[in-house]
Amino acid sequence: MKKISILLASLIGVLTLMTSCNDEWKDEQYTHYVSFKAQLNDNGVTSVYVPYSRHNDDGSYMYGEEGISSYDLPVIVSGSTVNPSTIKVSIAHDTDTLGILNYARFQSRKDLYYVDMNDYAEYPQNVTIEGGQSVGLFKIKFNFKGIDMVDKWVLPLTIVDDGVSPYPSHPRKNYAKAMLRVYPYNDYSGNYSATTLTLANSEDPSNAIGMETSRAYVVDENTVFFYAGDINEKRTDRVNYKIYAQFIGDGQGSVKLWSDNPAMKFTTDGKASFRIYETMDEVQPYLKHRYVIINNISYSYVDYTSVKGTEMAYTAKGTLTLERKLNTQIPNEDQAIEW
Fold it and tell me: pTM, whole model, 2 decimals?
């Protein structure tokens, strides 16, 4: 009888402990911290791709004109339970963190600094996260008209933690910061494969070499610019070597190439053309491959800044190919693109 009593008492104790443990999991295990969904890459920023112009389903401009676009930045409430009440999260422009980032990455090389793009952005001072929801969308509106993508544009934002608001910002490093490296794009911008574009010294074409990639940056809805030859974003004098490319036609047509820098001595034969074609992936049937191919590229220019007082003439000839992968299961095209 004594053994039965001991066994019964032990069983009651275990059941009580189990009930207690189960009740604990009903409570919040962590703090309801607030943070951005903006994971930083190796360069200390978050790459964000935004259409140069935001369109409606019928193709018309969503904001009434070209060059106006928007981006929804997710703001998250963490925790093991659902956010119980509606909160208003204050968000501010963060020049201090951008300055710290620039100095940490580039030291005194100010020519390599990220540039604050706050003048091209419009946004509210807060975002509301409704009770029962764990995510709110901070709506940013961009005016890209006139922006020069020679600069490395970053929009720096921070969650304001004033000690009075009914939420704490996330204490983990950078979670309450958003350093948005914004890339506006159109149908023709992006990283082109340049393996079939050869670059040669104009005085000796026999030494022509292929390149790996050539990036096209947005100018307007139908125009991009490349850097001449093998010049890229790492060159501090890159602003001198912009080659504009305007696409004329729907799906195929001509490409007008020009430069606005006379010192570059840019010339072309005017025969460049393009075509666009699409194909579905053979292994992943929901994936669409969209190609933009620029044919008959031929231009010459001089590099007049690499060696002071010396002009080095180059000629580029061949083809550039841009590939975009689109997930057709996602209706919003800018989100469907696999960058």
Answer: 0.85
CA-based end-to-end distance of the chain: 73
Give CA 323 to chain center in angstroms. 17
Lookup: tokens for 29: 């295990």
Quick one: tokens of 74?
């997710």
CA torsion sign for 170, 172, 176, 182 is negative
**Amino acid letter, residue 187:** D
Q: Which amino acid is residue 282, in one-letter code?
A: E
For 33-68, what is the HEC assignment?
CEEECCCCCCCCCEEEEEECCCECCCCCECCCCCCE
- The alpha carbon of residue 157 and the mean position of all alpha carbons in its chain are separated, in whole angstroms, by 15
Determine the pLDDT at residue 25.
Answer: 44
Kind and range of the H or E element at 173?
none
Please give the Cα distance from 183 to 177 (Å, whole number): 19
The DSSP 8-state label assigned to residue 28 in this structure reads: -
CB atoms within 10 A of CB 189: 23
Q: What is the distance between the alpha carbons of residues 225 and 320, in angstroms, rounded to a whole number? A: 13
Q: What is the pLDDT of residue 279?
A: 96
10 Å CB burial of residue 126 (0-12, 13-18, 19+) is middle
Residue 317's alpha-carbon distances to 57, 183, 197, 311, in angstroms, are 38, 27, 6, 20
Q: Which amino acid is at 140?
A: I
**Residue partners of 10: CB distance under 8 A and separation at least 6:** none
18 phi, psi to nearest 5 deg: -65, -40
> What gap in Å lies between CA 255 and CA 299, rounded to an integer?
12
Per-residue pLDDT, averaged over 254-263, amounts to 97
Q: What is the pLDDT of residues 99-110, one digit of tens each?
A: 999 999 999 888
Q: Which residues pair with 325 in a beta bridge?
A: 289
User: Residue 68's closest CA among 81, 79, 53?
Assistant: 53
